[in-house]
Write a structure and sequence with these properties.
Layout (H helix, E strand, L loop, with lengths): L8 H7 L2 H10 L6 E5 L5 H8 L6 E5 L8 H16 L5 H10 L6 E5 L3 H5 L7 E6 L6 H8 L3 E10 L8 H12 L4 E3 L2 E5 L1
Parallel strand pairs: 1-2, 1-4, 2-3, 4-5
Antiparallel strand pairs: 5-7, 6-7
């Protein structure tokens, strides 16, 4: 597999097992579901969710593609940008667009190239069936406070990297769930709960 940027579905799930969790979650959503992804970057999770999408599903991927000011993440993003250039992509956005156009899902993907706070204005309270939060890993609490109210009662919330020791996501996720009384669980490196 090495340094390539396109993988088969099986390879993706072997490398990133949480993607199968997201795919299964989308497969259980109603026909007219709205799914939001905060931090789509190269499109791995978007593709996994699109695999299971139904004709009426809308998957809204939100990312400004600028990375973050977090030193650990910034270093990772800089390396990835360099590798993207070596294989002919000008930006992570180009890789995202190329990735999702080849997925045989039946839903529609909409890219919102914006920051999360600005994009939140397009989603009224309780308008989202499922959200996957994978943005700035040192401000997960902020993203949850802004976006979880936009998830419908009974909707699903997934937060990535809840078990990563380099960030505060785990602590923020647990504090958020305990404060608001959500019964949470872990599935690979996803924290998840039903609102």
């Amino acid at each position: 597999m090495g340094e390539k940027f396109f993988y088969t579905r099986e390879e993706m799930y072997e490398i990133y097992p949480y993607l199968e969790v997201l795919e299964k979650a989308v497969s259980t959503l109603p026909e007219d579901a709205v799914v939001v992804e905060l931090g789509c970057w190269s499109g791995k999770a978007t593709c996994a969710m699109l695999f299971a999408s139904k004709a009426g599903h809308k998957i809204v991927a939100i990312d400004h593609f600028g990375g973050t000011d977090n030193a650990v993440e910034r270093s990772h993003f800089d390396v990835m940008r360099e590798k993207l250039g070596e294989v002919g992509f000008d930006s992570p956005k180009d890789l995202f667009l190329e990735s999702v156009k080849n997925v045989p899902g039946r839903g529609q993907v909409f890219l919102n190239e914006d920051d999360f706070d600005n994009a939140a204005g397009s989603f009224p309270p309780e308008s989202i069936d499922m959200i996957f939060i994978d943005g700035n890993h040192v401000s997960a609490m902020h993203d949850m406070l802004v976006w979880v109210p936009r998830v419908k009662k009974g909707g699903r919330v997934f937060v990535h990297d809840v078990n990563c020791p380099h960030f505060t996501v785990a602590e923020e996720f647990q504090i958020f769930c305990e404060y608001y009384g959500f019964d949470w669980d872990m599935d690979y490196d996803l924290g998840c709960f039903t609102k």
